[in-house]
Each structure stands twice: as C-alpha cells, then as structure tokens.
Amino acid sequence: MGYTISQKIIKEHLVSGTMEPGSEIGLHIDRTLTQDATGTMAYLELEAMGIDRVKTELSVAYIDHNTLQSGFMNADDHRFIGTVAKKRGVYFSRPGNGICHQVNLERFGVPGKTLIGSDSHTPTGGGIGMLAMGAGGLDVAVAMGGGEYYINMPKMLKVNLTGELQPWVTAKDVILEVLRILSVKGGVGYIVEYGGPGVSTLTVPERATITNMGAELGATTSIFPSDKTTKEFLKAQGREDDWKELVADEDAVYDKTIEIDLSTLEPLAAKPHMPDRVEKVTEIGRIKVDQCCIGSCTNSSLADMMKVAAILKGRKVAPGVDLTISPGSKQVLSMLAENGALTDIIDAGARILESACGPCIGMGQSPKSKGISLRTFNRNFEGRSGTADGQIYLVSPEVAAVSAITGYLTDPRTFGKAPKAKMPKHFHINDNMIEAPASPEDAKDVEIYYGPNIKPFPDSNVMTETIDAKAILKVGDNITTDHIMPAGSAILPYRSNIPKLSEFCFRQCDPNFSENCKKEGKGFIIGGSNYGQGSSREHAALVPLYLGIKAVIAKSFARIHAANLVNAGIIPLTFQNPDDYDKIDQGDELVLNDVISSIKDGETIVLTNKTKGEEYTLSFKFSERQREILLAGGLLDYTREKNK
Asked: 78 catalytic, yes or no?
C-alpha cells in the first residue's frame, strides 16, 4: 500500500509513535513561525524554559497583527519580540513586511518540510507542499527548543479535483464549496489532500487560498502536491533549489474522498456568521453593501490584487460603499506600485491599508451598526469584525471588487470579461525588512526588552484529587476562540498581559464571566459540540487558567484548543452521553472525585451534580505524555521538569 503526500512527510519526520489513525505521534519540526498577537507569549514561554538558542533549522517571528499603535503596548511587544529573536536565533519580519502566511509562502516555504505556527492559518503553507499546522504558542516554543510536536495521527481525506474553473470563479469558491459539503466540523481528525487533474490548473497562490481556509474545516492541515507549478513559483521567487517533487503514490489509500468538478462551480459566499453557511451569490440575491474589504492571508496575493486592479481600472467605488485593500506583503505592494496597478486601485476610490492582517482580526475598519460587509477573509464569526451586529459575508476578491462598484452583492459573471493575472517570471525580491538574528557570540550582548505591559505567565493549576466548583458558564455549539478570547483593536494590545486580558474573557457570552470567576476563585465551563473552533490562540486557555477554570466539559472539542487546554493544565472532558449536557445548568454545584488517579490510569471519570443529585460519566483520551502534562500542572512545568 502506497503513501499519501502527508503520510510521506510524517514518516520522514516521525520521532515517536506509530502511524495508526488516532494514536499520538511526535514529529520533528523543521520550521516555526509566530506572529505578534500570539508571539509575545510564545517567546515569554521560550524564555521561561531557559532556551539559549532555537534548535529548528529556521524560525521566523512576524509582526502583522497588532500593528495599530494607539498606545505603547503594541510597540513594546514588537521591541520585545525583536530583541528576543535577535538573541535566540530567530529571523524577524518587521512591521510592514507583510502577513506571516503570505511572506512565508513567498520567501520561506519549502515542499516536504514540517512547519508549525502560532496561528491557525499556518496550513497556508500546504499550498506549496509543506506539512504546515497551526498550534498553540507553547507548542511552538517547545518546538523551537528542539522538542517534538505531538498530534493524533490523522486520517486522510482526499478532495479529487477535475475540470477547470470558469471565468469569474475562483479558488475561494473551491474552498467555500468544500466547506459547504463538509461543514466547519467535517475536517476534524483529517488531513485534507487535494489531487486529481484539476490540481494542475491552479497556481500556488490559488492553492494557498484553499489550504488557508482548510482551518475552517477543523482539519489538522491541508496540502497540495509539489509539482511543476510549484517549481515555477519557487523559481520566480529565486528559490528554485528549494523545490522537490512530492506527490501521492498511485496506490495511496484515503479514508474518505469527495469529488469536485471545478467547471461546475459558481461564485459563492458564506453568510453570517459561520464560514460553512455557503450559498451561491445568485441565491443570496441583490443586497445593499456598506463595505468591501479585500486582503487577509486568504486573498492578498499579487494575482488577487492584479485582478482587483483590473476590475477597478477606470471605474469608481459606489457612493456609500467603503472599499479597503490590504496587500499581503511588501513584495505585493511594491509590484503593484511598479506596474501601475496601485494607481488604478487608488483612482477608483479604494483605501489602501498596510500589508497586515488589519480588518480580518477586527484591527480597524469595523463596519457600521448592522452594516453589510463583503470580505475576502476566512472567518465571519459574530462580532469578530469589531461590530457586534455586523453582517459579514466571505467572498472572492472578484465578487468584492465588482460589488464595491455596483453597491450591491453582485454575481461578477454579469460584469463582462473576467480579468486574468499571469504569474510573473520573476517576483520583485527585497528582503531588507527581514532581520537576521545575531551570531551566537554577538547574541551574548543583546539585551531583551520588557515593556511594562508584559506580565508573567499565569500560575499553573495544582492538580487535586477532588475538584468541587460551580458550572460558572454554559455555552452552546461551535463556540469559537473569538467567543472565549476576543480579538479587536481594544483587546489585542493586552495579549502579553493576561490579568488585563481576563476582563474581556467570554464577554460576548456572559458580560459577568470574569467577575464571576474572580468571585468564585474556581469553576467549570460546560460546552456543546466543536468547542474552541477557530484561531489557535492559546490565550483562550491561558486566560481561563488565570481565572481559575479547572476543567471544560463539552460534547466535543476542536483539535488545537483541546491541546491548548491540556498545555495550560485545564482538563478537557467530554460527555459520554451527549444528552447529559442538557441536564446541567449554569450555577450548578459540580464535583469531580478521584481526579489524579483517573488521569493517571483511566479513560472515564464521574461528575456529580450536587444541585440536581445526579451523576454523569465523562470521557477523555489522553496519551501518556498528556497525562503527565496535566499532572505536572501544564506543559511549561512539564518541560521545565524534563529539562532539569
């Protein structure tokens, strides 16, 4: 039996475990990336481990999230990251150089390498044939220190592509179709591999758009083959030597296969407030648009921007519509300026934002109250835009640009001839905003800068045999990390200040959550299915840790968040009988007995509801390593102990 693309890379990087689906495996990690919203904490964790020099072949720290400097906090964090990167052997991508995933694709992506990043959209690298996975900052810090990255061996899901995209239909429509078919939970436990004759019709940036939004499927990652198209892209980036062919064996076996005929797809949109609420643009109909935002790590490549420029050329943004453009990198912005396309965009009335995440994470450009915003981003969770009742639709750049001109959600196929964008033979290469680390000798003289907003890592949970606490919060299905720990310009500057950040925890679900936790001193959270989906932000575990949360009990968990809870020392438990979820009310007094002995040797534990006089059986599947992490109080304490 042959191997899939992912299985080949996993086999080559396997350090521990066996490649049996569901069993824990440890992988050697070649490369890491961090961004500033999660990176400050990751590097504080690295420092806490006492690592003098990173041990990966390449690690890069990007500044692309918290670039709005309305106070000293973000600037201080950037200075901290820059100095720790220089001292510890990490490359530093300065603010303005671009979004981590776009720059990684352009300058650092290598087929066949393993990459983890403290950002859930790290799978963008799968567009170039990397095994690229989102992870919590602590997992990334451990990998930078030379440790393995642990996941449960995924099953393999193949998306077989046939045909060719028709005019005005895009890679964004491909991944929206996959989301329509599978849902935001459909990729859980799988790696999604793209194959079939349709793959050869897609450029590397188009493939990266598709793997980027694979994060919204809940998948471990997504990946495309590395083929001639990949080689041409790397050659144009001056990195042809980084290419190697990587394809699945002809007799590779997949656990599941779905078929998509590219030629049958139409322009699609994800309706508020979930990426899998997908319908055809023609089905949604003609709705008045208030804002269009083009960019993000999903759709900010040169090709995307060139098509947008062609649509806007000689035209004008409709009255009452605000159009923003965020080029994905300095390379993209420079080339738009060089070839004149930037002028076409500006002349049409678009607002040019810096090469950063910006509106995607609620960092500015929030729509008006109840405003309808078409965005080329990857998430449209409620409130994520910064406007609580904003109506966010996810669309392709072509749909967004055409709709910005008409003022209404518009099927672009009614707009005439579709623009085309050829891949350049040579990209404009100028890496002057990527700073190399100091040599080991010079690093001794580098002083790490700590600003006053940077606070210590929260204290660990001390594991006790009995946990007696209230159900301090009960929430429903598909709770995202944006619900738990919101983003936005008012909140992101405190990502390195857990005590201050705790004031915002679960604010959308219960404005009194933080106050209630501090009053009680401890508590349980009760959740529904797919708890913790979305971003990889470990703050969604670290802040509840700080607030005294001992365990989260849910119907099911998103992969990264479950791992982050374990890393924080919070116990993720699932209802053996999902109907028991309905029997617990917020405020019920709950007790877990035999906690330490159960974590050491068991797979179930009994939860007693003192308020109702009932008992429920809870399940967990922890590896031996995860059991030790929980008993140690979290991954940081576990790693410190191991390194003694």
From this structure: no
